[in-house]
Amino acid sequence: MSIVQRGIFDKLSDKTIGFGTWRRSRRAIAISLAIAYSLASASVASAVVVCSKNIASCGCSITSQGVYLVTNSTMTSAANSDCISVGAKNVVLNLNGATFTGPGSGSIGAAVHIKPAGSSIFVEGQGLGSSPALLSGWKYGIEDDGSDALMQDFSAKNNFKAGVFFFKAKSSEVVNFEASNNTGYGVWVSSGNNNDVGTGIVSSNTLDGVLVGCAGTSPHCTSGGGNTMSSTVFSMTANTNGAGGITVQFNSNNNQIGKNSATGNTTGDLLDNHATGCANNMWFANTSGSATKGCIH
Fold first, then answer.
1. Which of 160, 132, 162, 141 is nearest to 82 (CA)?
2. Cα separation of 161 and 256, whole Å?
3. What is the Cβ-side half-sphere exposure of residue 145, based on CA atoms within 13 angstroms?
4. CB-count exposure of residue 30 (10 Å: 0-12, 13-18, 19+)
5. Fewer beta carbons within 10 angstroms: which end of the chain, N or C?
6. Whether 218 contacts 275, CB under 8 Å
7. Whole-angstrom distance, CA of residue 180 vs CA of residue 76
8. Contact 46, 74 (CB under 8 A)
9. What does the alpha-carbon distance between residue 247 and residue 278 come to, in Å, rounded to a whole number?
10. Residue 164, Cα to own-chain centre: how many angstroms?
11. 226 pLDDT tier (thresholds 50, 70, 90)
């Protein structure tokens, strides 16, 4: 004689159980399953590794204020995630001249990722090291989604999307750095306001040395990003990039671009992609081999 296993809902649908009782039982089971799933998800979320004040390996998150020091000269990760993320206020992160090596092409993480909750952040690349920190093999060398961040003294090379990426950042600054030989952009200020990019080198990137605004062709932002407002690009050297040297997109206004040098870039050295003129962008005291409009000086 064969025995047929009956599922829980088969048993609950017995004729001896009224329809109302059966429906309430199903609802109770569904709620129980949802609670169990939520508890499991919370357990996974709580498994985030919190950085200690001395950081010796990739894969941790800074969740409280303080001074953090990278103590290992070689920080390597094969995981598709950030090496160090910062999600707190009032943080100093000293990279101490370390080399940060990511998983390479297709990476979805950054060597250093300032999260939206991060503010008043100082990322010092060299510290007491003999040379600036080197960030390579990541989607972004540094990604800034926060506010009031200062990033300096590092080199971001051979990254997948950009050496430095600003996303909805506010009042942040990157200075004294190099972002060259990246598969995408040297620096992409994709959205945000009151950010500064200055005193750096962006050369031999596959796309633009510095892109201000969204990626795409007017009037559509077909490849991501948003508008960038009231930001500054100054004292940059942008040579031999595969697209523009310094490019301001059609959707970004009230920016200042001054005292930069750009030569040998494929689609132009200094470009403002507004349909007419430069909108409210101010270009001044720049030197270049070519400029697309008379309003670029």
1. 141
2. 24
3. 13
4. exposed
5. N
6. yes
7. 20
8. no
9. 11
10. 7
11. confident
Q: pTM score, two decimals?
A: 0.84
Q: What is the pLDDT of residues 93-124, one digit of tens each?
A: 999 999 999 999 889 999 999 999 999 999 99
Which tens digits make up the pLDDT trace of 5-17? 444 334 333 433 3
The more confidently predicted of residues 268 and 24 is 268
Contact 144, 179 (CB under 8 A): no
Region 40-52: what's the mean pLDDT? 62
CB 125, CB 75: distance < 8 Å: no
* CATH architecture for segment(s) 49-288: 3 Solenoid (2.160)
Joined together, the tokens standing for residue 294 give: 């008379």
> Look-up: residue for tokens 């997109």?
249
Alpha helix segments (H runs only) across 58-213: none
Task: For tokens 């750095």, name the residue.
Answer: 177
